[in-house]
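Re: that backbone. Tokens:
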């Protein structure tokens, strides 16, 4: 039998990792052995640490790039590595600026053909910011196109963080979603919670000793539905295949001294000064009054902190558009006097 694959898509900070944690807990309760592939833009593996620490399962990681672009050649090899561990189901969490179609393409490569079955593409939307994406990213047409494709190819769309907006906004979001995808079920969630039987129904543990049978690749729903089968002209299609799914988003990794405890007030002031240019921040930092590293998550201009078991060197990953590196490092210097910078300079 082919191994079912669930692809989790959606923009930065929408709630994909939270959904993945929910799926892993439910998979355990059903006796399923999952395989996990995670893709992150930054060089440091924040989400992988969260998943690995919470689930004690093997995680394949593609760091410092997007599966649509620089990591595309590694995608098939990572999936084959996971299949060698004989999972019952594969979860693929994409970076927030990835086009799910690229993963679907990888599933049809000869080394994977017949060994995997695309079950569903789930796209998670941030209710607070979905309506603003077109204006925020109006100058980055590649990114806008990717965000639309995340909606268009989805089998299921979750409008997450509904507790942060009113009913009028939700009505506008539904209208926007239906413009791009009139067929996929649309669910409204908080903290990515939903009836997970919708995603895991029909997936059973594979008995020990069962040899996987190669089956013809097919898409269960999603991209096989008529509304999402619109193919561009051949020349246009080829051009899109060679375009990045984003053009001006960059990541920066900042590392304070191991013993430097950063106050939340100073850190939030540092994060807030970049406005819409800072799209996401996450990492593990020392904070006053806490012996262990704290996990910081910044998304949609909201900062949250939580406990962690991470014991490595502290770091903070920033993901932004049109951020000036020299300005960023200068402000980081001001925040942490004496900090060694990536360039080797010291204040």
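Recovered sequence:
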């Amino acid at each position: 039998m082919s191994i079912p694959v669930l692809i989790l898509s959606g923009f930065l900070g929408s709630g994909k990792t939270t959904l993945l944690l929910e799926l892993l807990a439910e998979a355990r309760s059903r006796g399923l052995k999952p395989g996990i592939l995670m893709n992150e833009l930054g060089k440091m593996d924040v989400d992988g640490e969260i998943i690995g620490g919470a689930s004690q399962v093997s995680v394949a990681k593609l760091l410092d790039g997007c599966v649509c672009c620089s990591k595309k050649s590694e995608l098939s090899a990572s999936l084959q590595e996971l299949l060698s561990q004989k999972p019952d189901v594969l979860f693929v969490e994409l970076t927030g600026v990835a086009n799910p179609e690229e993963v679907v393409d990888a599933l049809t490569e000869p080394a994977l053909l017949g060994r995997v079955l695309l079950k569903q593409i789930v796209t998670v939307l941030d209710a607070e910011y979905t309506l603003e994406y077109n204006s925020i990213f109006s100058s980055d047409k590649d990114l806008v196109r990717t965000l639309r494709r995340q909606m268009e190819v989805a089998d299921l769309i979750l409008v997450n963080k509904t507790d942060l907006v009113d009913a009028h906004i939700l009505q506008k979001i539904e209208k926007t979603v239906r413009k791009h995808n009139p067929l996929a079920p649309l669910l409204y969630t908080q903290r990515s919670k939903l009836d997970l039987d919708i995603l895991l129904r029909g997936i059973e543990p594979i008995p020990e000793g069962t040899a996987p049978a190669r089956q013809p690749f097919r898409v269960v729903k999603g991209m096989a539905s008529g509304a999402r089968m619109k193919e561009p002209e051949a020349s246009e299609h080829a051009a899109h295949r060679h375009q990045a799914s984003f053009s001006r988003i960059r990541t920066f990794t900042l590392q304070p001294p191991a013993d430097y405890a950063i106050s939340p007030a100073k850190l939030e002031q540092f994060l807030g000064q970049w406005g819409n240019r800072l799209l996401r921040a996450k990492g593990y930092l020392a904070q006053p009054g806490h012996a262990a590293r704290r996990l910081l998550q910044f998304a949609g201009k909201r900062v949250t902190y939580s406990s962690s078991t991470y014991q490595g060197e502290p770091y903070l990953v920033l993901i932004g558009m049109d951020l000036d590196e020299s300005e960023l490092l200068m402000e980081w210097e001001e925040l942490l006097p004496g900090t060694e910078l990536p360039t080797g300079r010291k204040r």
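The CA atoms of residues 266 and 335 lie 7 Å apart. The domain at 249-335 is CATH 3.30.1220.10 (Hypothetical Protein Yjia; Chain: A;domain 2).
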